[in-house]
Each structure stands twice: as C-alpha cells, then as structure tokens.
Design goal:
Elements (H helix, E strand, L loop, with lengths): L1 H27 L2 E2 L8 E2 L10 H15 L3 H16 L30 H14 L6 H15 L19 H4 L9 H9 L5 H8 L6 E3 L16 E3 L11 H7 L6 H8 L8 H9 L1 H15 L24
Antiparallel strand pairs: 1-2, 3-4
C-alpha cells in the first residue's frame, strides 16, 4: 500500500508540474520576452499604474488626424524608424543636445520627412499630468502605431508594453535605415539583422498602403514643375485607408517606391517575396494577421526594460542628472 501511495503521489506531482507548464505557456502568449532574460513586455503593463494610457494616446491621434490626415502614417513610420536603430527605445525622438546627443532626425532617411513629433509631445504632456513618470516615450510610439493603423481601417493587436527610454542616439545605425532605393537583397539583409524574415518584410512594407511620399523618392521622380518635396500618395487607389490594395498595386507594376516593386521585379523575388505578395493581394485577412504579428515582432527589438534606460519627462531630452 505504501508503494502504491508513493506512485500516486509521484504521478500527482508530475500532473501538477505539467499543468503549471501549460499555464506558463498560455501566460507567455500575451507577453514579449526581452533578450538575455530581461523583464518581459506585457500588454497589461500599465493596467494598474496608468490605466488611461491607451485612451489618452487614442484621443490625441483622433484629434490630430482631423487637421492632418497624414498623421497616422507618420506616426507608424516613427515607430519603425525608432526600432530599426537602437531598438525600440525612443531614441529617434531626441533633439540635438551637443556634444552628448546628436539627433537621428537629421540623417537622410529622416531629414525633412520624419514628422509627427509635436503630436508625440502633446501625448507625453497629457500622460505626465495623468501618470507622472510612468509611460515611456518608446511605448507612446508603439501605442500610436497600433492606434493609427486601427483608425485607418487596419487590424488591431495587443501592444506589448514596458519599454524604457534610451539615453543615447546611434547615427551610424540611423544612416543604415531601409531606403526607398534599396535592392531586394539589401532590404532582406537589413530585416534579417533584426530577426525579421521575408514574411515580415512583405507585411511591414504594407504600411505603405497609406500616407504620402516626396516625389524625389518615387520611381517616376518629379514631373516638370514639381519641387523635390512635392507629395504623392503612396497608394493612389485608397490613399487614406489601411487595406491590401497596396499589394494589387505591386502586381500591376504601380508601386510608388522602387523598394516596394523589387519584391516582385527582383530576379530572386520569385523564390522569396513574390508568393507572399500574391497571398496578401488575394486575402486582406491574411495580410492583416501577418502585419499585426510582424508589428509585435518588430516592437520587441532590443527593448530597454527593468532598470535599464529611463522614463523621460520630455521625449526630446534625456532627464537631467543631478
């Protein structure tokens, strides 16, 4: 009887351990994991410390897009260009504070094109009144990207939060951001550097389904009489809507940017990106699902968490050290 009791007890322990592992796995599905065993990002990060954070960000973007319909596309671009440099740490938002800080805003990929900083400032100011010293500028960009897409008709996703703000910029990396003139192999290399595969590349390029671009960066360049800064719709079919029409434009050879069209025209595309373009052109649901997943994946690039970095009081400046 003693032996049987021991076996039952052992089996009970195994079952309990198995159940615990399942619960951990389910919990992990709503979290991102920081590299090197850091603190995990979580969609519930501000539930107790700043429960109004999402609503504050949404309200300011809704107000801003009334007078500036370009704002949603501009805000998602800030998040993209932030994550692809120092990781998602809000470094793009820093102004020059020489000699310590040289702003990433002036590199070719951002100069005179990155915009929406004033909206971020307004959001930060409101959040500092509601929850002082709690919500990071990096998380504001992550929330603003999701809200901007959703307001334009695109997918929703649970934004993982808990990033802290960096205290440095990285001009060398900022000079290596994806370019509208990059060939496919260069784009793939730049995405692979952040563990983003071809599906992520094609999905994230789909953010060009809304917003505008300066004509000097388009395949057609500027027409006679246009200044180099004249704006063209990235998607000339549904320019203000986040949808899958962008991929139909590619199939018809009507992409505004060379770096978009190469996902079909490059000799190596047939075996890599072309099938994905066809998939997304044929199913907006498939595009939306993969876009949301790729945004979560991109948003988890090298976040500062725990005691790393800081929560900036002003997104344009690192906090003063006394």
């Amino acid at each position: 009887m003693a032996g049987a009791s021991s076996r039952i007890s052992f089996l009970g322990l195994l079952l309990a351990a198995h159940c615990a592992l399942i619960l951990l796995a389910l919990a992990g599905a709503a979290h991102g994991y920081a590299p090197g065993g850091g603190v995990a990002l979580s969609s519930a990060f501000y539930d107790e410390s700043c429960p109004s954070a999402y609503d504050v960000v949404r309200r300011f973007i809704q107000d801003a897009r009334v007078s500036d319909p370009r704002i949603p596309a501009s805000l998602i671009r800030l998040h993209f260009h932030d994550c692809f440099v120092n990781g998602c740490d809000g470094s793009l938002l820093l102004d020059d504070d020489l000699p310590e800080i040289q702003s990433e805003k002036h590199v070719p990929a951002n100069d005179k094109s990155a915009r929406g900083f004033e909206v971020v400032d307004d959001i930060k100011s409101a959040l500092e009144k509601a929850c002082p010293g709690i919500v990071s500028c990096a998380d504001i960009l992550a929330l603003a990207a999701e809200i901007s897409v959703e307001l334009a008709g695109g997918p929703r996703w649970r934004v993982l939060l808990g990033r802290r703000d960096g205290t440095t910029t990285n001009i060398e990396s900022a000079n290596n951001l994806p370019s509208p003139f990059d060939p496919l192999d260069k784009l793939q290399e730049k995405f692979r550097n952040f563990n983003l595969d071809d599906t992520d590349l094609v999905a994230l390029q789909g953010a060009h389904t809304f917003g505008k671009v300066q004509c000097q960066f388009t395949q057609q360049n500027c027409t006679a009489g246009q200044s180099s800064g004249a704006l063209e719709n990235l998607d000339q079919v549904t320019p203000k809507v986040f949808d899958s029409k962008y991929y139909n434009n590619l199939l018809e050879g009507r992409a505004q940017l060379r770096s978009d069209q190469v996902m079909l025209s490059d000799p190596s595309a047939a075996a890599t990106t072309t099938p994905i373009v066809h998939r997304f052109a044929g199913s907006q649901q498939d595009f939306f699902k993969n876009f949301a997943g790729s945004m979560i994946k991109m948003g988890n690039i090298s976040p500062l968490t725990g005691k790393d970095g800081e929560i900036r009081n002003n997104c344009r400046r690192v906090n003063k050290r006394y």
